[in-house]
């Protein structure tokens, strides 16, 4: 019991005193998670939207694949990307391995199928009359698409938040691609894993509290945004 109390006191001390190492890790995690989610959104939302509104042969197969990729293990993503960007890989000359860019690439690949699949569901949930009404009023294809996306905006926001949650909480890809280098590629999850294994439970607990606070804050924001509707 004393061990837990001491760890809690250490964690609160690190947070309250704004320990530089702790908050450097937090800021780096937020930065790479932001860019990973942004890239996933830029790719996942348009692709998911097109799949959702169009009917074509093989659509069910694509949706099944995307649903399967939503549960893609992070270590598999890390292993695959590692094979391409390592020195022996086809992209080895770019020097991406063990850099923030490598972490972002891994997170981008992780979140894109999730955002894409949820965008399909969001698009399909919109009443078909929305698009037809927009066309009747003289809208072009782009304006019709905007009208549909506007109707699905809360579901799309939920998809993006889910994608962000997927990347900020993952550890496998970030560990393999970033190398968990102190002051350079260390994220909250990789730092928690490392510090706990070293016996620095208080340090890991501090990062865990901040990670939970970020997750709760985003969900409170989304709930507030929905109620504003």
Descriptive report:
The chain is mainly α. It has one domain: Orthogonal Bundle (MetI-like fold), CATH 1.10.3720.10. Helices cover 78% and strands 0% of the residues. The longest helix has 34 residues. The radius of gyration is 21 Å and the shape is globular.
- How many helices in DSSP terms? 11
Please tell me what the overall shape is: globular
| Percent in strands | under 5%
The description of the largest β-sheet is: none
For the record, what is the CATH homologous superfamily label?
A: MetI-like
SS-based structural class? mainly alpha
Name the average pLDDT. 89
List the uncertain runs. Answer: none
CATH level 1 class label: Mainly Alpha
Radius of gyration: 21 Å
In CATH, the topology is named MetI-like fold
β-strand number:
0
CATH architecture label: Orthogonal Bundle
Helix content: over 70%
Cα separation of the termini: 47 Å
- Strand-and-helix sequence, N→C? HHHHHHHHHHH
């Amino acid at each position: 019991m004393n061990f837990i109390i001491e760890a809690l006191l250490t964690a609160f001390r690190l947070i309250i005193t704004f320990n530089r190492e702790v908050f450097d890790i937090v800021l780096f995690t937020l930065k790479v998670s932001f860019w990973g989610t942004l890239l996933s959104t830029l790719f996942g939302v348009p692709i998911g939207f097109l799949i959702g509104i169009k009917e074509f042969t093989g659509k069910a197969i694509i949706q099944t694949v995307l649903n399967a990729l939503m549960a893609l293990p992070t270590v598999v993503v890390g292993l695959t990307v590692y094979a391409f960007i390592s020195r022996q890989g086809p992209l080895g000359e770019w020097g991406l391995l063990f850099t923030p860019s490598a972490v972002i690439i891994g997170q981008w690949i992780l979140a894109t199928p999730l955002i894409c699949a949820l965008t399909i569901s969001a698009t399909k949930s919109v009443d078909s009359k929305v698009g037809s009404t927009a066309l009747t009023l003289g809208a072009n294809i782009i304006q019709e698409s905007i009208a549909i996306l506007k109707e699905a905006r809360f579901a799309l926001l939920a998809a993006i938040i889910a994608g962000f949650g997927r990347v900020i909480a993952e550890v496998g890809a970030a560990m393999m691609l970033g190398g968990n280098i102190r002051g350079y590629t260390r994220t909250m999850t990789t730092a928690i894993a490392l510090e706990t294994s070293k016996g620095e439970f208080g340090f890991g607990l501090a990062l865990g509290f901040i990670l939970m606070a970020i997750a709760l804050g985003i969900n409170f924001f989304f709930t507030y945004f929905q109620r504003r509707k």
